[in-house]
Design a protein that fits this description.
The longest helix is centred in the first third of the chain and has 14 residues. Helix 1 packs antiparallel against helix 13, helix 2 crosses helix 5 and helix 8 packs across helix 9. Strands 1, 2, 3, 4, 5, 13, 14 and 15 form an eight-stranded antiparallel beta sheet that branches. Strands 6-8-7 form a three-stranded antiparallel beta sheet. A two-stranded antiparallel ribbon has the order 9-10. By secondary structure, the chain is an alpha+beta fold. About 25% of the residues lie in helices and about 15% in strands. About 0% of the residues have low confidence. It has a domain of about 240 residues: Beta-lactamase. It has 13 helices and 15 strands.
């Protein structure tokens, strides 16, 4: 791979890039020059080997007369809902090992959950956002999101917004304690610990769901603060925004606002276990987490999931034309997002899309981070950034990088709503186990 050291508007881009992926490098640089990137990292693997590993810009902008802090090779940041992919992977690993039955009632693992109309909820419903618990009606206390037992206790007593399994609505925050607590009960240990031991350690990932106390000072020091998106008053309101403003008790409003004052630059949140939203990593961590899933479930002699489980991970489990939370069409596998193309719909903006190949599955994070695996292409992808973009799915910087990656491996069009090669039908998954 070629070594990269290129000056950009906010600093320097460094790393390595295989010649075949030069278009990806050019797009990464262009994001800084024309799309408002502040600091970011990007990693792509192909057939289990890293072909792109880039980082650059500023982790911290200049402030009070002090110079900005460069985004270094080991800089990390909060990746918001890209964390859900890590949580889902833990659930599927437990399923692959016969410890967790995704078709079983939740009460097999969490008896206290079976009340107030939730008795028939199945584990799979928590993964594909049909469980009926996309938000809390009960007001969350200040700092409550950082208290795992408090949040699970709230959910145990809440009534579902719909009969479990009868509707789909993104469980944007509550996913941390619905499927998160099922994983905890099945594994016999906290989600963050299970992920650290069973995923991060064997893959060598710099990726945490809740920073352990011993690692906290060092990790927090190299963590890039999140910079909120710059709002555009001239931008037409989306259905989601209209719902939030019209009714403070609506699902979108409760999802967005009933968070106990949660802020993602809060050190207390960084140390908590919030498996829907507070994973801390970089592009390298996301791409390498998905690398085994792009290779049949096995990488470097370690099997993370079997073929049957992997096939299920990438299959659409629930889809709707009007997600009860996000108020737009969505498509989900069990715990993962599938390609979503909402570019041509009325009252839905271009950044309410995340266009991947048909076989790909992964997850975006608020503001535009993304990680995914494409088992047919043998490719995994991870992108993180500190400056959030507008919208609910993938920002224009992230989509431009995804587009460049697919172009580099020979895909030619996304007009069908998925990235595909000209003259081919969408291939069925075949094992790539090594």
């Amino acid at each position: 791979m070629n070594s990269i050291d290129t000056t950009v508007k906010n600093g320097v881009v460094r790393g390595h890039c295989a010649p075949a992926f030069e278009q990806v490098l050019n797009t990464f640089v262009e994001n800084f020059e024309t799309r408002g990137e502040i600091g970011a990292s990007l990693c792509i693997t192909l057939e289990g080997e890293t072909v792109v590993d880039l980082w650059g810009g500023l982790a911290r902008r200049p402030k009070d007369g002090k110079e900005g802090t460069p985004w270094e090779q080991d800089t990390v940041c909060v990746v918001f809902s890209s964390t859900k992919g890590a949580t889902a992977l833990c659930a599927h690993m437990l399923a692959s090992r016969g410890v967790l039955d995704l078709d079983a009632p939740v009460t097999d693992y969490w008896p206290e959950y079976g009340q107030a109309g939730k008795e028939d909820t199945r584990v799979s419903m928590m993964l594909d956002h049909t469980a009926g618990m996309p938000a809390n009606r009960t007001r969350v206390k200040p700092g409550g999101v950082s208290d795992f037992d408090y949040m699970t206790g709230l959910l145990e007593h809440e009534e579902p917004f719909w009969a479990p399994g009868s509707r789909q609505g993104y469980h944007g925050l509550t996913y941390a304690w619905t499927i998160g607590n099922v994983v905890r009960r099945a594994a016999g240990k906290p989600l963050g610990a299970y992920f650290a031991e069973e995923v991060a350690a064997p893959l060598g990932l710099d990726f945490r769901i809740g920073i352990p106390e011993a690692d906290y000072p060092e990790t927090e020091k190299r963590l890039a603060p999140i910079i909120p998106a710059s709002l555009d008053p001239a931008r037409p309101k989306s259905k989601f925004q209209e719902s939030v403003e019209a009714d403070p008790q609506s699902i979108p409003a409760l999802f967005l606002l009933n968070t106990g004052g949660m802020t993602f630059n809060d050190p207390a949140l960084h140390q908590a276990e919030v498996g829907s939203a507070n994973g801390i990593t970089n592009g390298r961590g996301l791409a390498r987490m998905y690398a085994p899933l792009a290779m049949g479930g096995t990488l470097n002699g370690t099997t993370f999931v079997d073929d049957v489980t992997l096939s299920r991970m990438g299959r659409v489990s629930a889809a709707t034309a009007d997600d009860a939370t996000l108020r737009m069409p969505t498509r989900f596998a069990l715990g993962f997002m599938k390609s979503m193309d909402n570019r041509k719909l009325d009252n839905v903006h271009s950044v309410e899309s995340a266009i991947l190949a048909d076989a790909a599955f992964g997850h975006v994070g608020a503001g535009g981070s993304i990680g995914f695996a494409d088992p047919v292409a043998g490719m995994s992808f991870g992108y993180t950034m500190n400056k959030q973009g507008l919208g609910l799915l993938l920002n224009d910087r992230g989509q431009a990088l995804v587009d460049a990656a697919y172009s580099a491996i020979g895909n030619t069009s996304k007009e069908s709503g998925v990235w595909a090669k000209a003259g081919t039908t969408h291939p069925q998954f075949t094992s790539r186990a090594r």
